[in-house]
Amino acid sequence: MARAKGSAPQAPSLPGLLGDLEERVRAAAGRIRELREEKGALESRIQDLEQQLAVRSGTLNEQLAHHQEENAVLRGRVEELETQLADVPSSEEAEQWEEERREVRERVERLVRQLEELMAG
């Protein structure tokens, strides 16, 4: 219906308002369903991620424990090697031992020659 110039606006009809409200309610209900589905999908994804995290955390904890044990073993081995290294004479001491050894060997060889000469003599 066309309205005449100067006449007051016509109030919408009650059936038209009800139809409009019903359409809005249906649209809202549809959106609520979509949001619930999206919420369910997100909750499912969260559960999957939490499970993956739990598995990964367990694996990482196992690896960490293994590396800590291996680290302790290696530290013990380093300490053993450091002790052995401390027991090894320095190069100067080693040279002194070598010189002493050479002197003792020369003495023994002289004594052997002297004995041989005495026996041959």
Characterise this structure.
- The protein has 121 residues and is an all-alpha fold.
- It has helices at residues 14-87, 91-120.
- The longest helix has 74 residues, at 14-87.
- The protein is rod-shaped and about 155 Å long.
- The model has no long low-confidence stretch (mean pLDDT 85).
What layout of secondary structure does this protein have?
Layout lengths: L13 H74 L3 H30 L1
Q: Main traits of this protein?
A:
121 residues; mainly alpha
Arithmetic mean of pLDDT: 85
Shape: rod-shaped
Biggest sheet features:
none
Compute the separation of the termini in Å: 158 Å
Radius of gyration: 50 Å
State the helical fraction: over 70%
Number of strands: 0
**What is the number of helical segments per DSSP (H or I, 4+ residues)?**
2
Compact summary:
This protein has about 120 residues and is mainly α. The protein has helices spanning about 15-85, 90-120. The mean pLDDT is about 85.
